[in-house]
């Protein structure tokens, strides 16, 4: 499977409109009609000029000089309004350009002999001619002939407090749209296509006012291609979460939010150059990261299978002999080997069993107490060549927390009065001390207390008064620079909160404005003194929205419109965040994917599968 990633980009924003050039004004005798009292027009055109080589839009733009001019047959709309009380604009007039002159203006200076500085005469004009106040949208497929040019809008406005000596009104036309210039570089650029996602394409033109009002019509735009550069004309707007692009190479689509565009205001008459470097990656070292993924898929009869993808190479995770329906829960990579922990069902009695795989080879995790027939493994790490796994075993409603080191079982001690407990994550300090995160309950359905075991002693972690710890959600533990970090989730007053305890001090993760029902953390790592958590937020409609947090600050992960999404696993490499997960529109059509540095890569569902999810991801150099 060949994929590509966006590995570098730049957004140089230039906020200056290039200098305009005024047309050579025709002599008075050449003005149609020859009436010196008639208002006559001379028009100039400005460009989106930032760099040479942009294709022309409305009228004719010289790429080398930035000068603009009109062509024979061009028609503009002209509105004239005396800016005094209780005065309306004259009916919109259409003027046609021919051989250096504009014909069709019926307004005369005699009608406005009393104009002044306080009550000037305002001229507004638009190109192309459009009558009245009308709602418009730019063309969505600007790659088709004429559509890019058709999407542009030129506008001019000038006020006069007295009649010019020659009676000629000089109108400087400027572009009211913004222009995106997206240049692709790298090996994959020649085979790539670009779609601009979820931008506002609508606007309302007011020819007797001061231009346009941006509307609220959202659409996708296929830009005009010139070599490996893509141009699009769009209304000025706030980009909100950022400029969203879908870039396709050889049938594989990656979605990307351009850095530096979050909350960016696109202005009229400005070209915004964006440079993206695309490198192919299929295990060849370009880009220089190896990608390890662990996931599961189901077929149309709901049989479940586990697998890994290492640089795109598929390996089935087959259960130990006699097992069915494998599930991966966590992954570690050490010494170039892939370690996955999870579970399966015994094909004879249907009981849940725990196991782990090393490069696809399965090993069953044993529990000596025969009455405890259900076994679960949740977390794995490799330290100094030893394999550490956290989990639990049970014989009914009562769960016993435990961990395995190289297959040897250790049962954790329960505090007095505890009815049930579970170990959910494991960490090992440099000196060999083992930390195991989990929870305990003081009765069936009783109080749930989160915490961790150190030296076989349970350390409780505080919750707000009235909060209920969510034992079905993920817990993660990490030890870094002698600090202990634990991630968990609780519910309070019908809202869900994800939090991180640092040496016992709890901090809630920020909830996005739309996430009225809260958020859930699913994975955590600590790097460079920062805490990274992935998971999802919960809007009022319960359509989960994948996201991640850095030191508690939330960033949404992009997904197809109308889809739910989750970020199930997170890591950091060279300061770049990667998240594994899924997006879906129903519980039987999960689509596996991962996000790297903001770009989403959709993965193929293994052959025979109908739905799949990535549960763990790891990147290494």
TrEMBL record:
Signal peptide span: 1-21
One Pfam family, short name: Mfa_like_1
Cited SUPFAM superfamilies: Galactose oxidase, central domain (SSF50965)
Keyword S-adenosyl-L-methionine part of the UniProt annotation: no
Record keywords, A-Z: Signal
Record's protein name: Fimbrillin family protein
Organism: Bacteroides faecium
